[in-house]
Amino acid sequence: MPQDDRYSRQIRFAPIGETGQHRLQSSRVLIVGLGALGSVTADQIIRAGVGFVRLIDRDFVELSNLQRQSLFDEEDIRNNLPKAIAAEAKLRLVNSSVEIEVKVDDVNPTNIEDFIADIDLVLDGLDNFETRFVVNDACAKHRKPWIYTAAVGSYGLVMPVLPGTTPCLRCLLGNLPAPGSSPTCETAGVIAPITHVTASIQVAEALKLLTGNLDPVEVRLISYEIWSHRFQRIDVGDDAMVTCPVCSQGKFDYLDGTPLRTITLCGRNAVQLIPGVKGEINFE
User: Fold this and answer.
1) What CA–CA distances, in Å, run from 213 to 17, 26, 163, 204, 210?
2) Are strands 221-225 and 155-161 parallel, antiparallel or unpaired?
3) Residue among 168, 171, 185, 244 flagged as catalytic
4) Residue 185 annotated as catalytic
5) Which pLDDT band, with edges at 50, 70 and 90, does 159 fall under?
6) Residue 183 has what pLDDT?
7) What phi and psi values does residue 161 have, to the nearest 5 degrees?
8) For 94-144, how does the pLDDT look when each residue is reduced to its tens digit (9 = 90+)?
């Protein structure tokens, strides 16, 4: 299929241009999680022409997903497909020129460093803070930029993290929120418009970073409440980096796994247990 016209409108956007498009096509991106945020992010990143995209998700498509997860349909449920496999099939039809690698897997301290080793940027499509803290540690350790996103109810957050240069997730949150203290899609619900807008803001920040247009001085925590249209850009501040154990001391507690033995799964009334060592478990 002729490719000359595929990115023509994107190239005509002056901040990207021909040079930026070439940079996108030589970039390698990891998307962790293919739910409401990750599915929209994956679709837009693939359409933008990022050269290599690795997709990771451990879940299967369920009926409650279809209200907001736009890559999936009822046929995926009937076929009992993992989200990563269903997403891959759709995305290959969108842009066959992008190299797509999928993993039906759980992201945790034992494998995250392998997943990010050959990646230029990590994009957050996760639904729990525990795994985000693992991603934050790994990206800080290996100086990999990543973009934090979250959405619940009608409220969304986006924050690029440039390790060593801008505040990280622990600068923002400190330690993990106490169990039950933060709203989830199970307790507060979530509407599709905020997940799509939040993911789109994440992709905009990703395009800026990958094309060399993201000024670290301008990095902010972006918050948007779509029901009332309240938009804010919040400066987390360099002072937070001074007291952050990740940024100031190089301590990667969540990557080391010491405080992370369970993960509360969003919307599934379940808790994931993480073994202390690698290997198969004999449940008998």
Assistant:
1) 11, 16, 17, 10, 8
2) antiparallel
3) 185
4) yes
5) very high
6) 65
7) -125, 115
8) 999 999 999 999 999 999 999 999 999 999 999 999 999 999 999 999 999
pTM, two decimal places: 0.90
**Angle formed at CA 43 by CA 140 and CA 230, multiple of 5 degrees:** 70
Q: Token match 């400190």: residue?
A: 174
Please give the pLDDT value at position 270.
53
Q: Which tokens sit at 236?
A: 């987390």
User: In angstroms, rounded to a whole number, what is the distance separating the alpha carbons of residues 226 and 192?
Assistant: 10
- Rounded CA gap, 236 and 81, in Å? 40
In degrees, rounded to 5, the angle at the alpha carbon of residue 48 between the alpha carbons of residues 46 and 52 is 50
Residues 6+ apart with CB under 8 A from 158: 147, 148, 149, 198, 201, 202, 205, 221, 222
Query: What is the C-alpha to C-alpha distance for residues 9 and 5, in angstroms, rounded to an integer?
Result: 8
Judge whether 38 and 131 are in contact, CB under 8 Å. no
